[in-house]
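Dear support,

We are seeing what looks like truncated structure output for some complexes. This example has two components. We would appreciate it if you could run it in full and send us the complete token output so we can diff it against ours.
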Amino acid sequence: MATNNAGNTYIVPTTANEVTKPSQPAFLARGGAQDANVTGNGTLYTLGQGNVMVEIFDQNTDFDIGGGGGSGQSTLTAPVTGRYQLDVILAIKNNENSTREEFSLVTSNFTYAEYGLPNQATSGNNDANINISILAEMDAADTAYVTYMCDGEGADTSDIGNTPQLWFSGYLAV
Amino acid sequence: MATNNAFNTYIVPTTANEVTQPSQPAFLAYLGTKDLNVTGDETTYVLGEDHALTQVFDQNSDFDVGGSGGSGQATFTAPVTGRYKIDVILCAVSATGGTREFIKLVTSNRLYQSTSVPFVATAGSADNHRNLSILADMDAADTAHVEYQISGIAKIVDIDNAPATYFSGRLEV
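Here is the complete output from our reference environment:
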């Protein structure tokens, strides 16, 4: 049995009452390849500006994987006004000398940011992760994407890492 | 008023239209007792390998609390194929001197990992927090559990109990 809006199925309960929503906007994407030398000297990096992300799923087809040959940023476009749960796991490499970082989830309505002293990766252990999770309000056609910047390296020698340490997911929650 | 599947209620709106889903797979558990000396020398710690977690709730009974007397790891088993929102907060204690750490959410389909140089816990502030949140794709009968690993020191690092270490999840879409 399914509950529908006269046109399409939107809630699918099992006989045990677990509910799935196969048409609900939802996506999960992972890093496709490392983006090398993208920040470190104050340059703003946008997730998806270099290598495309790899979609694990994209219900409703609202996520753009980005890529230097395409749109240039990995972006969710809200198909309907609502509250969207967004989660990002970002990996930074070669930031041993960085003194400041800015990590932002940028939506059309608000920017959700984490500023501070970087968790510096050391030369022998060159990974540093930073995460952000928020329930964001988005209007129809609003977008959400991710930026990162670190400073203090003297040059753009810092990289953005790859799977399993680079993830971007989201869904229409309420 | 309720929406049901001809057998049972699965969405319960109030008269003010707040909606709950009392049969939706969802759990919240915390570590009730500190796990001592579990990593530091690169040993992989599995949440629930020693003390069982304490369930706050477990709608649909899909969560195994673990514990050395039981399964040995706190594990969520997906009852149905879907996308599951999973959140972990974990706190390591006595990590001073650690050089690298991993927190991992291990699902049957994928590994979600956060790696870093540990925030140096000092003698007066001996806690080092990590967290992970993701919308994970899981097939029916797939599992999810949490691992943590730190290297660079002896096996003297503890995993702190509540309010510092939590594991939660729910079927979202």
